[in-house]
C-alpha cells in the first residue's frame, strides 16, 4: 500500500514538472503580450516608417530582434493618456534578447520600411514563430 502511495505521489509530481512552462516560453509570451498592448496605443499617422524584418532566416533572428528593438524606440504613443503603459511596454521589449545560431549578413536598413502598426504585427509574428 505504501509503495502504491509513493508511486502516485511521484507520478503526480513528475506530471506537474512536465506541465510547467520553460522560462524562455514565459518570456516570449510576456514580450508578445507587450507587443499586443502597444498596437492600439501606437501613433500610426504622420510618423517615421520603420525597417521591418519579415520572415528572417534562422541565422538572422538576432539581427531581426535588434532591428525591432531599435524600431520600438522610435514609436510614439497616440496620446498622453497612454504614455505610462506605452513607456513600460517599450522598456520591457528593449530588455528582450535572442541569440541566433549563425552570422547574418543583413543589416536593419536592408529591410523594407513599414508603418508602426505593420511593424508591430511583424514583430509579434516573429515572436510567435520562435
UniProtKB/TrEMBL annotation:
The alphabetized UniProt keywords are: Cytokine, Disulfide bond, Secreted, Signal
- The residue range of the signal peptide is 1-19
Locations listed in the record: Secreted
A cellular-component GO term for this protein:
extracellular space
Question: Could you tell me the Gene Ontology terms of the biological process aspect for this record?
Answer: immune response; positive regulation of natural killer cell mediated cytotoxicity
* Record's keyword annotation contains Signal: yes
Q: Which GO terms describe its molecular function?
A: cytokine activity; cytokine receptor binding
Family that this chain belongs to = Belongs to the IL-15/IL-21 family.
Function comment: Cytokine with immunoregulatory activity. May promote the transition between innate and adaptive immunity. Induces the production of IgG(1) and IgG(3) in B-cells. Implicated in the generation and maintenance of T follicular helper (Tfh) cells and the formation of germinal-centers. Together with IL6, control the early generation of Tfh cells and are critical for an effective antibody response to acute viral infection. May play a role in proliferation and maturation of natural killer (NK) cells in synergy with IL15.
User: What's this protein's name?
Assistant: Interleukin
